[in-house]
Predict the structure.
Amino acid sequence: MRGASVKYMPIGVIHSCHTEAKATPIQPVYAAGCAGRAEIFPEYAEGLTDLEGFSHIYLLYHFHKAGPPRLKVKPFLDEVERGVFAARTPFRPNPLGLSIVRLLRREGNLLFLDSVDILDGTPLLDIKPYTARFDRIDTLSNGWQDALSEKAVAERSQREYKRSDL
Amino acid sequence: MRGASVKYMPIGVIHSCHTEAKATPIQPVYAAGCAGRAEIFPEYAEGLTDLEGFSHIYLLYHFHKAGPPRLKVKPFLDEVERGVFAARTPFRPNPLGLSIVRLLRREGNLLFLDSVDILDGTPLLDIKPYTARFDRIDTLSNGWQDALSEKAVAERSQREYKRSDL
């Protein structure tokens, strides 16, 4: 039995210095210095209460510029095709994005962020607190990524993005 | 400007021993021994290639039994109302769930899991690999959770769930 489709409404929009997918860093850990803002629509602003106590938050968003989904993709970090669910590419059956970003401060319905690897104008679907207790996991293996050197990953991940203050 | 709504189709369904929301552990780290399976619909199975190399994966899913959204909630772990985006409750404007679970093995389109804190029958929307490089963050602060003792959290989180093999 197939489930019914689900429908979500954006709760806000992400502003960043990244206006081109090809020049957007591929993971927040390699986007230090990339400022951004999450603007939450006023009707949801009350839901941000207490968020400023967390140094890191998850943003869940819609990859609005992703092309058609693929089941095998060549990840940015690799030369070999991998299953889409073993990669973080935007070209997914459901183009859901997940980034862990640094929360610098909150001003009303605006969140000021660092380490933003997200395209400007991206629709925001949800925000969750990142906590060391629940989310900092001792992995036993990291799949195809275990074969990559830290240097090669860092070089590929940063790409040619502009750093700017937003 | 408000963004348009987004529509997703389940890529599969999560099977677990949790049939009651009230008896489901609240985070995977407190659900060790809770087996589960993710069944991916056959048309997406090719996208699972290479996933078995990762010891931990993110499941993104639809909280199909969540009630109406609230902007302030009393988290399971706390006695004080918090903003919904500073909590992991299902009662969210967009009822998107996120769990980091242990991937034990893959058999075709079936993923055998441990540390499952998800209700049986939950529609699965996406799977992403969890990697130490991108996802294991040194937090500076963990908001209202920093005030809770590890013992109190563990007691509340486990709840009265049954452990079983699936």
About this structure: The beta strands of chain B are 6-8, 12-16, 36-40, 56-62, 72-73, 82-83, 96-107, 110-114, 122-129.
